[in-house]
Amino acid sequence: MNNIRIVIVDDSPFSISVLSGMLEKNGFNVVGSASNLKEVKEVVEELKPDLVTMDMVLADTDGLECTRVVHEIDPNIRVIAVSSMMDDEIIAQAKKTNISAYIQKPIDEEELVLAINRISANDDLYQELKERYCDIFKQAFTFSFNNFIKEIPKFTDIEKEERKIEHVENGISIVMGIIGKYCGRLIITLTNESAGKFVEKILKRPAKDSQEILNVVAEFGNIVGGNACSMINRENKLFGVRIAPPTTIYGESINISRNSLDAMSFFTVTFAAGEINVNIGFNKGAVEWMSNI
């Protein structure tokens, strides 16, 4: 990734010097700079960079207009906003202008390098996730089962035809989004009977009521998902994945609409009290917009 060719757009010689130093120190190739709209057009057309860092406040224009000019020349050039100005309104405008990430000055070097590497990652990074995520989620289940109920679960992979509806009879379904470099979702389902026995094993007593069962199952799913995401990030911090708060669905007949994902895995977790069905998937093209706001 350190062959990335970068142009810096900023009307402050000091900021250009600081940015150039950070980028070159980390192996990136700073090929030029520009301080106004005319220079942006000339430099980008001549040097054809892979990425542009963009100040949002310039003497004769703003970073949004400059970004539009960059993308008129080549829509594949990635733009990262690097500016002292940062609020909800300008973030929203930046997203609409196809700016890939937003970093506020004073610049954190690690944050800048991570943002560049994430948005520039190629197919190899997605392939790495695709090959590892299912095993990592199984490890997270094993770790959680062992800690909560002192039991090692068994896993059975399931081949399932592509369906737009996940159907559950008399049970509970925990749905969690996964966000990061690649986005996806985790669905955990189990019958009411298995849920009751599972919660009793965790609490070392029968559940007080159905609400306690729902709460325990949702938190268990949240812990498994959070542990798995942490394990993925430890293998490669470029993924930056994290779990979103769980949504709990329950009833006599549940239908969950789910979109087709680029990578999908189904498996059953079997333990003494019953079984849990798991569906995990990621989208290659679904990338979280990056900002520290």
TrEMBL record:
Superkingdom of origin organism: Bacteria
Keyword Transcription appears in the UniProt entry: no
Keyword RNA-binding included in the entry's annotation: no
Assigned keywords, A-Z: Chemotaxis, Hydrolase, Phosphoprotein
InterPro entries named among the record's database cross-references: Bact_response_regulator, CheC-like_sf, CheX-like_dom, CheY-like_superfamily, Sig_transdc_resp-reg_receiver
GO terms of molecular function: hydrolase activity
A Pfam family: CheX
One Gene Ontology term from the biological process aspect of the record: chemotaxis
Function field: May play the central regulatory role in sporulation. It may be an element of the effector pathway responsible for the activation of sporulation genes in response to nutritional stress. Spo0A may act in concert with spo0H (a sigma factor) to control the expression of some genes that are critical to the sporulation process.
Name by which UniProt lists this protein: Stage 0 sporulation protein A homolog
Gene name in the database record: cheB_1
